[in-house]
Structure formats: structure tokens, C-alpha cells
Design a protein that fits this description.
Layout (H helix, E strand, L loop, with lengths): L14 H8 L1 H39 L2 H4 L1 E6 L13 H6 L3 H14 L12 E6 L3 E2 L14 E7 L2 H4 E6 L14 E7 H7 L6 E4 L7 E11 L5 H4 L8 E4 L9 E8 L15 E7 L11 H13 L1 H10 L4 E3 L2 H44 L1 H9 L4 H30 L5 H26 L19 H24 L7 H22 L1 H11 L6 H10 L6 H36 L3 E4 L9 H6 L6 E13 L6 E6 L1 H11 L19 E6 L1 H7 L4 E4 L5 E9 L12 E4 L12 E5 L5 H8 L4 E4 H6 L5 H31 L1 H13 L4 H34 L6 H4 L16 H28 L13
Parallel strand pairs: 4-10, 6-8, 15-19, 16-18
Antiparallel strand pairs: 1-11, 1-12, 2-4, 2-11, 3-4, 5-8, 7-8, 9-10, 13-20, 13-21, 14-15, 14-17, 14-20, 16-19, 17-18
Helix pairs in contact: 1-13, 2-11, 2-13, 2-14, 2-25, 5-10, 9-10, 9-11, 11-14, 11-16, 11-19, 11-25, 13-14, 15-16, 16-19, 16-27, 17-18, 18-27, 19-25, 19-27, 19-29, 25-29, 26-29, 27-29
Length: 923
């Protein structure tokens, strides 16, 4: 018999829609979790890139023009250079005219290879002299009876970079040549003030093969931006300097050197002087288009322009003798060193927090799988294929996760603009893929074989399989091998960066696998003697805690990784703060310093400073900087102090502490030998025998070194003698410095009290200056955010772990209440049952944090994050264990666990027991 074919209609309610409608709360929770995780994952690389770009731009912008500008120079067309043909006079003059220089400047800018881009608004060019000319005019100042010298400069666009304060800007009358007898010029306000120049002043510059060149001052100008490229690349253009005739002899006669600014059209007249003119093109890099990702290309382009193919191309335009010079490569190298110092720290935070987030996603999938365990087992028993079940679960999850991941990505891109989209897209995509695949993979692991749903899923009923044991042993072996390799290789750049980043996770994996296997054993041993107690709560809680869930590795791994990352991050931030505090203390030597460089402080200033808000104590000292031991040429600062007050200050600051009794007079009477505390170099030079010291006021004391200290608060240098002020003369004993104790001292009030008589420096202000780069600030913020995110995910992991056991716990309480268990006993039962796991996680977190920090500290250097390169110490700043960073997160885990368990017990007590004890309950 042939059975006719009947068309089967599709189900009215599709699988995905039915499942989403059956559990809208779970679907919404998963969407929220994926959206937040994708947003954080996408925001991290974008924020990091913004901080990296900001750090690079800050490094270039804050570098002085003398370091950041690329200086291209080429000599003028001279007739006495060997191996070069002589040029006609008109050709030589034409080479210095503005039109020629402008064309060469445009060609040079066009030949610079990206990503190095000159900023046209900051770059400059012109002509100046190589040899400074001595001028005989009597109205110029003559220190040590030496006539002044001047540099003749013809910069382009003087009107655009200077503000006229007096007279008018210089002009060139007609076509200026090398034999023009007179030209006009301008000088800066600093030059006019120092060299006594006025509008109408005349300078006579010696000529070469002709008479003296007359330079008439027609205007005085003030720089619009005195620290900009135009004026600061060569500070002589705006500020004269006092030079030594013999730089190697500090006592040689001195003379003034200044610059005179000619109009650009007058540049050819420099050929008629002995100044040997040269052309210059100063290229200031544009920081607007600088990106950290282009750092390698930027350094390559700069090297090509300075000493490579780029310089050869420029030389075809400007001349074969063109030379290039810059310190921008050192600026970029300093930034690269800073970035390499912080990259490892960022990677540790990113990998640690990312691992915790992925574990939480897996736990959320596990919670869903447990909730639907009976459903999926029934489907498998009725013939559902594993592939079909996985496909439906993947589609069901993707409908939720993909829009949520896209939403998180959109939020990250919206609130963090100005960065590349690809890293953020890849990060959000990774989160979405994990969220989509976690539930199907969990279903494959749990329902690969068709079986009846197990009634219990703890270690007493579900023993770990051999495959799981082998997998755990393999993973542990790999983690231990990586940690050992890291310990042997060290943590220097280029040898173990990936292992450094993974160290907290690796240590957490090792600890989680070991603790999950071992911790039920002592709890079961404690449950037996607890059974002899009168109460049932303690014995029952220990017995249940000893039957830990067989899948407790993920929650414990999440907690341990989060605690290790938090401990590591807290230790990093604490180490950075301590380094900045210590460096600021060494820079100021007190909480505040009120100091007069030359004269003693006014009478009554000490009392006024004491009355300033926040000041706890004031130590007055006198410092004589030009005291001469043994009447020699070497000078040593002599510090007169009150022994008691100064000893207390050294003890508080920890700088050169010594007992007050060390500065006692060795023998009495006139010419007594004064005991002194000396620096190592002074003690080594003069020994321990008494020696005389001549003071600035003409007095004379005899001292003997009784103690040696490397530093002392009163003097910022390395050489000093600290003596009892009572042994000094009246003039030498007058206070010149006040060392203030009080972290909260009001700086403004201190400056008002000091007035113009003394300079005030504050330790807090000095510390604030150490945050030199946006990259340093960004690293601290990212680290704090990563630790906070890891802590949030750890709490979520703890909550998911407790929610997973919530149905079984609520049912247990319902059954025990029918046997007479009171509500307070039920709360104690849940709290005591959860407490061993919380204590285990807290103790494991402290141990793993300590292990990770101890593992990485020998090679970690916090100098790049803590201090700018200019203030970095000679020795590196190592990573130290911070006790608060280890203990506070661990105690927080215990507190959160106890709070959640108490809340769970309270919620179970509000519900009736009928639903939990219904017939046919299989839990």
C-alpha cells in the first residue's frame, strides 16, 4: 500500500521566539551583560589609543623648539669654498633674496615624507650670519671693557611674529646688494633693554672688501610668542647673552652678544660683511596629525630627512652642502621608552579583567544550561540530534547577543571618538562570539551522551572524569611551565612581555585548579567533630560545603583572577604614588620650603609662617653657601641649625636622620671645636680631624666630622656641613631658610606671608608636576577602570555562583523548616555554608596576588609611569607588595558573600514552603 505524501506545515511558534518569550528576564539579563561587556571591550583599545596619541603629541608639543625643530642649514654662495665654481655677484645675491628662499622652503616642505608633516604656521626660514661681528660703537655696554658683538639676521615674516612697540618695522630701499652702504633693522625689546638700543641708534658693522655697513635701528618689536619656533629655536634672536671670551676659563673677560633683525629684502647685504651668511629652514612638526601607530614611520621619516635619502632630495633644491640637525629623534625615543614602560602594566590589567569578563560570560551560559538541563535532556531522549540542538541554541543566543554587542560597540564609538574602529570592532566581536558560543558548547559538554538528568551535581555524586583530570593537569603543567619560564627569562622588554601580561591569570589558573581539588578535604574532616556538637547548623553547613559543586572552577578562577589583578593594580598605583611622594620630598626636603637665595630672612617671618593654616611646625636654618674649609678654593655650604628641632625634622622626613646629641661641642672655651654632620664627599676630603672653615662674614670656626649622611633637608645639593647654630657668629646664624611641616599648608598664604623676600616651594605642587604626559594619566585611569571592572565582574561571578545553587538551597530550607529549623538558624546555615568558599577565595586571592607581585617585581620598573624622564632617579623604581591592596579586595569578597547569603536566606524565609515541597519535586 502506498501512503500518499502529506505536506507538513511549519510550526506556528518557532523555537527561538518561544524560548525568548518563556524567559524574558534571562534574555534581558544576557543582553545587558553582553552589551556592557562589549562596550567595555571596545572602549579599552579606543581609550588606550587616545591616550597614546595624546602622549605622543604632548611629548612633541612640550619639547622646546630647540629640540623639536628640524634645522636645515646651507651656507650662502661663497667664493672661497674649495671644489666649487665661483659664482657671479648677482647670482650670489639672488640666492639670498626672499623669493628664492620662499621657493626653496616650499620645495623642502613638499619633499618631507609622511607621517612627518611640517606645520606651516610654526615653521620659519631666513638668512643669518655664521660669524658674530664685533661693533665699535661706544653707546653699547662693555662689561670687562670688551666691545659687544652682534649677529645679523634677515628672518622671513617678521611682521607676522612680532608686535611693534616703538618706531616702525625696517624696510629695504630699492634693490639691496652686497655693497649697499646702509640698511634698516629692528631689535627685540630684550635686546633694546640690555644693549641700550633706541629708535635711531646706529651700528657700524665691519665690511669685507668694502667700508663699514651702517645699520640704523628703526623699530623695537616684542615677540608675539616668545617660546614659539620663530623666536625660541635660536633664543639669541630675542634675548642677548653675556659670553666669555674664553669659554674654557670662567674668569675670562665677558662681552655682550645680541641679534639685529634686518628686512628679508636686505639679506644680500650680508655678503658684504665678514659674517659668512648661511640660509636656514626651520621645520616644526605638526602635532595635530601625530598618531602612536605611526611612531615607527615617523622615526624612519625623520631619520631619512636628517641623514638619509630625504636629505639628499632636499639638497638638490637647497645646495650640496645642506646639513640637517634635530633632537626630535631623542624626544620620540623618550616617548617610546615611556610607552614601553607602561605597555606591560596595561596588558596585565587588560588580560586580567578580560579573563574575568569571559569567565562571567561562561558562567552565565552555565546558569542557563543548568536551568534548562531537564529540557535539553528530554529533547535528546526524544531523538533531537546534538547538531540540531546546538544550532537552535546558537540561534537563540545570537538573536540576543548580536544586537547587544552592536549596541555596546556603538556606545563605545560614540563616547570615545578619534580612534581606529578596527580594534574596537574586533574586541566587541570577540565578546559577541563568546556569548553566542558559550551556551551551545556547554550543551555539547553536558548532553553529548543521552542520559537521565542527574539528581545531584556535587563531588559526592559526580566525580571528575579522567578526561577532565588530564585536561586540568595539562593546563596546570602549561601554566606552571609558563611561570617558571617567566621567572628564568626575567621581565625585561622583549623577553617576556606576553608572559608578564598573563602572569596573574596563570597564577590564578594554578591556584583555582589546586584549591577546587583540595579544599573539600579539610571541610569533610571538620564536619565529623562538628557532628558531636549540640547544634545541627555547624555540622550541616560544613557537610554541605564539603560537597562543593563539581563545576566550581570557573567561579573560583574568576575571583582569583580578579583579586590578583586588583592586588597587582593596587600595588602598581600605590608604588607610583609612593615614588612621586618620595621624589617630591627629595626635591623640596620638607612639606614646604621658604628660602632666600642671598639675604637672611626678615625678622618676624618665622612667626607669620607658623600662623599659616595647615602649618604644624617650622624649622629655621641658616645656610652659608660660600664657606671655605681650610681657606681653600672649594666652597661648601654650612648649615646652622637648632640640634633638637632639626633632628626631629630629619626623623620625620627620613632624610639624613641623626640624634640631636651628635652636634655637641667637643671642648669649651674660645675657638671650640664644633661637631658637624657632613656629606660623604666632604668627610672623605677633610677626614675626621678638626679643620678650620672660613665663613662669608669673615668669621672662622673649627669643626670636626662626627657623622656622615648622604642627604640633609636644609641643602638640596650633595655637599654640606651641618653645625649647631649657637657656635656661629651673629650674621651667619640668621635664618635663610624655613622648612615647614604640614602636608595641608596653604601655599597661597605662605607666599603672601613671604612676600618678595623669599621663594616658596611646596611638596604638593612639586608632586603634581610629575604627571608629565597624558599617557601616564591615561595608564592610571585605565588601570583603575580595569581593576574596577574586574571587581564588578568578580562580584557578578560570585552572584551567579550563588544563584546557581539558589533553587537547591531554598528547597533545603523549606524541608528543614518543616523539621523545626528556625529562620535565624536558616540564615546562619546559608552564611556558614557560603563562608568556606569565600574564605577560600579570599585566602587564595591574597596568595595569588602575593605570588604574582613577587614573580614580576624583580623586573618591573615603575619609573616611566611615576616620573617624567627629567626627574627620573638613577635607580629604577621597583614594584612592592602593598598590604592594603592585598587585603581589602579579599575582605570585600568575604563581605559580599556573607551579604548575598544573608539576603538569600531572608528571601527564602519570605516565601512559603508549599511550592518547594510539592509532590513530584525532583530537586
Amino acid at each position: 500500500m502506498v501512503i500518499p505524501f502529506r505536506r507538513v506545515d511549519r510550526a506556528v511558534a518557532p523555537w527561538v521566539r518561544t524560548r525568548l518569550r518563556s524567559a524574558p528576564g534571562a534574555a534581558l539579563s544576557l543582553a545587558l551583560l553582553v552589551a556592557v561587556t562589549a562596550c567595555l571591550a571596545a572602549a579599552f583599545p579606543r581609550a588606550l589609543e587616545r591616550y597614546e596619541d595624546g602622549g605622543l603629541r604632548h611629548a612633541v608639543e612640550q619639547a622646546p623648539p630647540s629640540r623639536s625643530v628640524v634645522r636645515l642649514t646651507s651656507p650662502g654662495p661663497l667664493t672661497d669654498l674649495p671644489n666649487l665654481p665661483d659664482l657671479p655677484q648677482d647670482r650670489r645675491e639672488q640666492a639670498l633674496r626672499p623669493a628664492t628662499l620662499k621657493g626653496q622652503y616650499d620645495s623642502v616642505v613638499g619633499k618631507v615624507r609622511r607621517p612627518l608633516v611640517p606645520d606651516p604656521g610654526l615653521s620659519s626660514y631666513g638668512v643669518t650670519t655664521t660669524v658674530n661681528q664685533q661693533v665699535p660703537d661706544a653707546w653699547l655696554p662693555r662689561p670687562d671693557a670688551r666691545p659687544a658683538k652682534i649677529a645679523l639676521v634677515a628672518p622671513a615674516d617678521l611682521a607676522g611674529h612680532a608686535r611693534l612697540t616703538e618706531g616702525r618695522l625696517p624696510r629695504a630701499s630699492g634693490a639691496v646688494t652686497a655693497r649697499t652702504p646702509e640698511v634698516e633693522a629692528a631689535v627685540s625689546t630684550d635686546t633694546a633693554k640690555t644693549l641700550h638700543a633706541r629708535v635711531g641708534s646706529v651700528l657700524h658693522v665691519p665690511g669685507a672688501g668694502r667700508g663699514a655697513l651702517t645699520v640704523r635701528i628703526t623699530g623695537i618689536v616684542a615677540p608675539r610668542d616668545r617660546d614659539g619656533v620663530y623666536w625660541a629655536t635660536e633664543p639669541l634672536f630675542r634675548t642677548p647673552v653675556l659670553k666669555l671670551t674664553d669659554p674654557s676659563d670662567p674668569y675670562s673677560p665677558r662681552y655682550w652678544l645680541g641679534a639685529v633683525l634686518l628686512p628679508p629684502d636686505a639679506a644680500p647685504v650680508l655678503l658684504g660683511t665678514q659674517g659668512r651668511p648661511y640660509r636656514y629652514w626651520w621645520l616644526a612638526p605638526s602635532s595635530a596629525g601625530l598618531h602612536h601607530r605611526d611612531l615607527g614611520g615617523l622615526r624612519s621619516s625623520l631619520a631619512s630627512l636628517v641623514s638619509g635619502p630625504g636629505l639628499h632630495e632636499v639638497s638638490t633644491v637647497t645646495g650640496p652642502l645642506t646639513d640637517a640637525d634635530t633632537d626630535l629623534d631623542d624626544v620620540l625615543a623618550a616617548y617610546a621608552q615611556l610607552h614601553s614602560g607602561v605597555a606591560t602594566l596595561i596588558a596585565v590589567a587588560a588580560l586580567g579583567s578580560g579573563t574575568v569578563a569571559l569567565v562571567v560570560l561562561a558562567m552565565a551560559a552555565g546558569l542557563t544550561a543548568d536551568r534548562r538541563r531537564t529540557e535539553m535532556a528530554l529533547l535528546r531522549a526524544r531523538g533531537a540530534s546534538l547538531r540540531g540542538l546546538v544550532g537552535r541554541l546558537f540561534a537563540e543566543t545570537a538573536v540576543i547577543a548580536v544586537p547587544a554587542g552592536a549596541l555596546g560597540l556603538a556606545v563605545a564609538v560614540r563616547f570615545l571618538p578619534g580612534a581606529r574602529a578596527l580594534p574596537a570592532v574586533l574586541a566587541a566581536l570577540a565578546v559577541t562570539v563568546v556569548a553566542c558560543a558559550a551556551l551551545p558548547l556547554r550543551a555539547v559538554a553536558a548532553h553529548r551522551l543521552v542520559r537521565v538528568p542527574a539528581l545531584r551535581h556535587d563531588v559526592t555524586s559526580v566525580r571528575p572524569s579522567q578526561r577532565r583530570t588530564v585536561a586540568e593537569l595539562t593546563l596546570m603543567a602549561l601554566a606552571v611551565g609558563a611561570v617558571v619560564s617567566l621567572r628564568r627569562q626575567g621581565t625585561s622588554a622583549g623577553t617576556g612581555n606576553q608572559l608578564i601580561s598573563a602572569a596573574p591569570v596563570l597564577v590564578g589558573v594554578i591556584a583555582a585548579l589546586l584549591l577546587v581539588r583540595l579544599y573539600p578535604l579539610p571541610l569533610r574532616g571538620l564536619a565529623r567533630p562538628a557532628g558531636r556538637l549540640r547544634g545541627v547548623v555547624t555540622h550541616l553547613s560544613l557537610a554541605r560545603a564539603g560537597r562543593s559543586s563539581a563545576s566550581a572552577v570557573l567561579p573560583l578562577l574568576a575571583l582569583l583572577t580578579a583579586l590578583t589583578t586588583a592586588s597587582f593594580g593596587g600595588s602598581v598605583l600605590a608604588g607610583v604614588g609612593d615614588a612621586r611622594d618620595h621624589s617630591a620630598l627629595l626635591a623640596v626636603r620638607a612639606d614646604a620650603r621658604v628660602e632666600s637665595a642671598m639675604d637672611p630672612l626678615p625678622a618676624g617671618l618665622t612667626d607669620r609662617v607658623r600662623r599659616v593654616s595647615g602649618v604644624r611646625d617650622v624649622t629655621a636654618v641658616s645656610v652659608t653657601y660660600r664657606a671655605r674649609p681650610k681657606d681653600g678654593r672649594q666652597t661648601v655650604p654650612v648649615v646652622g641649625v637648632d640640634p633638637g628641632d632639626y633632628a626631629e625634622l630629619t626623623a620625620r622626613t627620613g632624610i639624613g636622620a641623626f640624634p640631636a646629641g651628635a652636634l655637641k661641642v667637643a671642648r669649651g672655651g674660645p675657638g671650640a671645636v664644633l661637631s658637624v654632620v657632613a656629606s660623604p664627599s666632604v668627610a672623605h676630603t677633610y677626614g675626621s680631624a678638626p679643620f678650620p672653615v672660613s665663613m662669608e662674614d669673615g668669621g672662622r670656626i673649627t669643626v670636626r666630622v662626627v657623622a656622615v649622611r648622604h642627604l640633609t633637608p636644609a641643602v638640596l645639593g650633595d655637599d654640606f656641613l651641618v653645625v649647631d647654630r649657637a657656635g656661629l657668629g651673629a650674621a651667619a646664624a640668621r635664618p635663610t631658610t624655613l622648612l615647614v611641616t604640614g602636608p595641608d599648608a596653604d601655599g597661597r598664604a605662605l607666599r603672601e606671608a613671604a612676600g618678595d623676600a623669599a621663594a616658596v616651594s611646596l611638596r604638593a605642587e612639586q608632586r603634581a608636576q610629575y604627571v608629565d604626559s597624558p599617557l601616564q594619566t591615561g595608564v592610571e585611569r585605565l588601570y583603575t577602570a580595569a581593576v574596577a571592572a574586574g571587581a564588578g565582574y568578580a562580584v557578578l561571578a560570585l552572584l551567579l555562583s550563588l544563584l546557581r545553587a539558589a533553587p537547591e538551597r531554598i528547597a533545603l530550607l523549606a524541608r528543614l523548616r518543616t523539621m523545626g529549623l528556625t529562620r535565624p538558624q536558616g540564615r546562619r546555615l546559608l552564611v556558614l555554608e557560603s563562608l568556606p568558599q569565600a574564605v577560600l577565595a579570599a585566602a587564595g586571592g591574597v596568595l595569588t596576588g602575593w605570588a604574582a607581585i613577587s614573580l614580576l617585581s624583580p623586573g618591573m620598573d615603575l619609573t616611566a609611569v611615576a616620573l617624567p624622564p627629567s626627574d627620573a632617579p638613577l635607580d629604577r623604581i621597583p614594584l612592592h607588595i602593598d598590604a592594603w591592596s592585598l587585603t581589602i579586595p579579599a575582605l570585600a569578597v568575604v563581605a559580599v558573600t556573607v551579604g548575598i547569603a544573608a539576603l538569600q536566606a531572608w528571601w527564602a524565609g519570605r516565601k512559603g514552603a508549599v511550592r518547594e515541597l510539592r509532590a513530584g519535586d525532583t530537586r
